[in-house]
Recover the amino acids of this structure.
């Protein structure tokens, strides 16, 4: 499917830049061009289509769907709908307030709050482009399981008292009339959204792939196996910890991680790292502090963190 | 006072946001649009998130005209905003 891109990369490397084939430099340059073009094309296509779907399912509609569902079905649907909803820290609070005040259970709300950032479309495209569809699918499915279970556990814990009291003092009616969009407006919306994302991430992706290309060409294979291979028990929790402060740089971190995996980091460790980068974010925790007590944020981060660590170990075992 | 002038004086244009960068941008563009359309009204900037939620919305920023949300969660260019204001007055 990506054969024409390989031709383009070969032509640029050997004919335009006239780099001698089979040298380390040629390999690195070829890898850089191929990966960059492939990822940018994948990003544009996938984000465009996700945006079109999203234009039919804005958060307000999702809320009205979730308010009518019972607990377990609600957790599943909240997690699935979280996939198409991009997470922006500026809408975390209105999302939380809107869900709770329309009567969506706390556990269901948390399923959504975990799935929305964790199954992030940019991360998904990068995984697809660098590791293939099997790994991308594994990422989505384990993300869904973690968000469904986290929500169910938080729901069972009856921690409503740890939500700031003002949240429950207001109730709202859903089913409001939203401005409607015609087909042309949906396409314009999707195009603008795709361009916005590309503008935001292209530099990180280039830098990430650039460093990745250098590692690919110059660092010996298995170099990292002695530190982060699948037999090292501490690799997974360490990867999760490192991922927490890296939220805004997911786009640049992933190409880098792909190169590290090539040099011996176990796949489960890589996936755990990715999940931690997208799902556990310090800025998000700080913002959530406005609507819930610190203890609830810690419970939330703890459950999701343990889920990620467990997933990392599991994949390290399975993919050995 | 003639009817049209009375109407514009009572027109309410609000930008509601969580205080993020996009919200401020929408507020500035809307102010500019209102002055270019020579509407005799002020644009109000509201950062109380509960107000957005109470309108039944969960995205920010929001542009509301006479309490009706007409633009949600995006910042278009000034021409689009002018068009929206004209369509909703």
């Amino acid at each position: 499917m990506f054969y024409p891109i390989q031709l383009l990369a070969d032509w640029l490397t050997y004919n335009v830049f006239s780099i001698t084939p089979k040298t380390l430099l040629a390999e690195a340059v070829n890898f850089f061009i191929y990966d960059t073009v492939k990822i940018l094309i994948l990003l544009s296509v996938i984000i465009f289509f996700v945006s079109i779907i999203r234009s039919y399912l804005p958060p307000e509609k999702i809320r009205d769907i979730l308010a009518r569902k019972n607990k377990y079905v609600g957790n599943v649907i909240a997690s699935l709908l979280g996939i198409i909803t991009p997470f922006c820290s500026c809408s975390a609070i209105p999302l939380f307030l809107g869900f709770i005040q329309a009567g969506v259970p706390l556990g269901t709300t948390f399923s959504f709050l975990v799935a929305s950032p964790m199954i992030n479309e940019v991360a998904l495209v990068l995984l697809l482009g660098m590791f293939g569809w099997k790994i991308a699918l594994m990422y989505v499915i384990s993300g869904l399981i973690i968000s469904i279970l986290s929500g169910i556990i938080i729901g069972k814990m009856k921690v409503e008292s740890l939500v700031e009291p003002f949240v429950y003092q207001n109730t709202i009616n859903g089913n409001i009339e939203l401005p409607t969009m015609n087909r042309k407006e949906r396409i314009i919306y999707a195009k603008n959204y795709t361009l916005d994302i590309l503008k935001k991430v292209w530099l990180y992706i280039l830098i990430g792939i650039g460093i990745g290309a250098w590692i690919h060409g110059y660092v010996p294979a298995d170099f990292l196996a002695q530190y982060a291979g699948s037999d090292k028990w501490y690799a997974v929790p360490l990867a999760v910890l490192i991922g927490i402060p890296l939220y805004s740089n997911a786009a640049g971190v992933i190409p880098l991680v792909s190169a590290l995996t090539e040099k011996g980091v176990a796949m489960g460790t890589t996936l755990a790292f990715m999940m931690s980068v997208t799902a556990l974010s310090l800025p998000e925790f700080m913002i959530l502090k406005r609507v819930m007590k610190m203890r609830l944020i810690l419970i939330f981060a703890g459950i999701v963190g343990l889920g990620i660590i467990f997933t990392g170990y599991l994949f390290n075992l399975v993919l050995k | 006072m003639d009817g049209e002038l009375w109407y514009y004086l009572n027109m309410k244009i609000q930008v509601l946001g969580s205080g993020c960068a996009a919200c401020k941008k929408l507020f500035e563009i809307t102010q500019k649009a209102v002055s270019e359309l020579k509407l005799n009204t002020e644009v109000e900037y509201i950062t109380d998130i509960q107000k957005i939620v109470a309108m039944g919305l969960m995205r920010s920023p929001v542009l509301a005209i006479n309490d009706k949300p007409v633009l949600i969660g995006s910042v278009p260019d000034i021409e689009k905003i002018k068009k929206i204001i004209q369509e909703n007055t």
Notes: Chain A has a mean pLDDT of 86. Chain A has 16 helices and no strands.
